[in-house]
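Design job #97: recover the sequence.
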């Protein structure tokens, strides 16, 4: 099966990834492109208040991968605000994890954009304060 193009939006918390991803998805759909928006799994955990699960980066990354994998052969373009490589920011010490994430990422046709927008930070649905988000963004 043909692997879809994945449009990855990188940036720290609060840089506008979700807003821009939904805008790109909307424009592609309006132009008749067979596309899907893959939202970030950690946001679901946050809304569920499953904070302990957020500490299991391996689970988060594999769950995020499943959201993409199920679309192979079904859409031409995937837009996501949760690229696989973002998991490396939250789990820096495990070399096996790093190798696994890089292998998963490299199996796809990716186009990557780094956002460093100055967007009004809203803490609703997030796990970081504005200060903590800025520290993550600097990584």
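Job complete. Output follows.
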């Amino acid at each position: 099966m043909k692997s879809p193009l994945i449009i990855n939006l990188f940036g720290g918390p609060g840089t506008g990834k979700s807003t821009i991803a939904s805008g790109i998805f909307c424009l592609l759909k309006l132009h008749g492109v067979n596309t899907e928006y893959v939202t970030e799994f950690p946001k679901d955990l946050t809304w569920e208040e499953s904070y302990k699960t957020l500490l299991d980066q391996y689970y988060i990354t594999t769950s995020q991968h499943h959201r993409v994998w199920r679309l192979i052969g079904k859409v031409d373009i995937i837009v996501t605000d949760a690229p696989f490589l973002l998991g490396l920011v939250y789990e820096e010490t495990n070399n096996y994890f790093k190798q696994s994430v890089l292998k998963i990422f490299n199996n796809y046709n990716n186009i990557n954009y780094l956002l460093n927008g100055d967007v009004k930070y809203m803490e609703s649905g997030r796990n970081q304060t504005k200060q903590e988000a800025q520290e993550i963004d600097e990584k």
